[in-house]
Prior knowledge:
Helix 4 crosses helix 5, helix 5 packs antiparallel against helix 6 (133-160) and helix 6 packs antiparallel against helix 8. Residues 1-27 and 122-136 have low confidence and may be disordered. With 262 residues, the protein is an all-alpha fold. It has one domain. The protein has helices at residues 2-22, 32-37, 41-84, 88-98, 103-124, 133-160, 163-195, 200-261. It is 87% helix and 0% strand.
Amino acid sequence: MASTAAPVTGVNAADVAGTVAGAAPGGHSMGIFDLIIHAEPMVLAIMLLMIGMSIACWAIIIEKFMALRSVNEKTNQFENEFWSAEALDKYYEKVKKRKSKHPLSLMFSAAMEEWFRSKGQERLVPSGSSRGGSDLTISVKERILQQMALTRNREMERLEKGLGFLATAGSATPFIGLLGTCIGIINSFRAIAGSQNTSLAVVAPGIAEALFATAIGLFVAIPAVMAFNKFNGELNRLASKLEDFSTEFQMLLSRQLDKGNN
């Protein structure tokens, strides 16, 4: 009797071990997709929220990468053409025909349009008017610089659109994932209390869901923070380049106006 009972006991132990190793309680596996589908409602909602934020972040990253690359290429091309141009009015006509939409060309076009409008107003001033040429020159300079500043601010605001979302996602999603982790661990301890079983197989699915929520949060936050820092640095360099061009154009304009007054 003893010799025949031992094999039966061994077979039963192997079957139990295979069952525990092959599947988690509840009948679902531990794959990534299964962790999302079978997660607790609150944890599932947090996961879906962060997945949606990740999609939005990558859409902004791709759009900003392409936009800034195009702006940098066109800015370098504009600077080379501008400083090699023979006359501002001729180059302005060339820019108008090209219909360029990058910040430097728009600033230059706004400055030239204001310059032409001011020259037209200057011709309308009566010759016997008490208004002096120097006062007119100062007002022309101020209006042109204001137009360039307004154009620069509008373009920078347009290029910066979406960076706030990247910053928010980069700072908030780790804590949102941590919230999902806390909820998942709480549910795991409740499962232990309900089943009165401290086996790891009982709490493994809940712990895995909790840790996966944290992983999703980091998956969203890391590229968002890296992209924000990269794009913010490029925009700061672009803003400095636009400011330098405004200063250089102001000096060029001053020489032109002084030459016209003489």
